[in-house]
TrEMBL record:
It comes from the Bacteria. Keywords: Membrane, Transmembrane, Transmembrane helix. This is DUF3105 domain-containing protein. The chain crosses the membrane at residues 32-53. The lineage of its organism: Bacteria, Bacillati, Actinomycetota, Actinomycetes, Kitasatosporales. It holds the Pfam family DUF3105.
Amino acid sequence: MGSAKKSSNTARQARIAEMRRAEEARGRRNRILMIALSTVVVVGLVAGGVVLVRSQSDDSSDEAAAEGKASGKFVTGEDGVRTWDGDLGRNHVTKKVSYPVEPPVGGDHNQVWMNCNGDVYTKPLENEHAVHSLEHGAVWVTYTDKAPKADVEKLAAKVKQTPYSLMSPDDGQKDPIVLTAWGHQRTVTGADDPDVNAFFENFVQGEQTPEPGAACTNGLSQ
């Protein structure tokens, strides 16, 4: 009888010990799961914070870039060429840019350039694309409806024969005919004005070019 009780107590203690071991194992598993879950939450919060900060930074950069990042003024040389004295941003942006002059001579711009391999456009261009062409060393000829038709046709013929040049109407500019390169600009009296050739010679892929040799094809076209 005593032997039976002893055997029963031993078995009960064994079951209790087994239950304790199982409970301790569950506790360890739960602690491990809690630690893992906490780690995931912390990592998620950190990653989310980084994304938020980057997003806010990108938005701030894009908003700042949308202001043009072009501060300064024109200085007119003896040859009549106006040179921009100041900063011209070169960031790629997706928003519209408020340029300080029309047509612009540089500044932040869209990442896609206008084709400028002697391209003549019959509709106004988005400044953000044309400015990128200037960055590649192109000369941009613009004109208003006050420019004589004969001059427009002669200038178009010259542009078509000149790689790294483009032409388009721009009724937002003050003068009938304007020639623009990165950081430089001038008005001319007409297609036969000798300053036309001088401007092309000096600024088509000239020393002012921020990205000499960059493509003027495979960009945007009307």
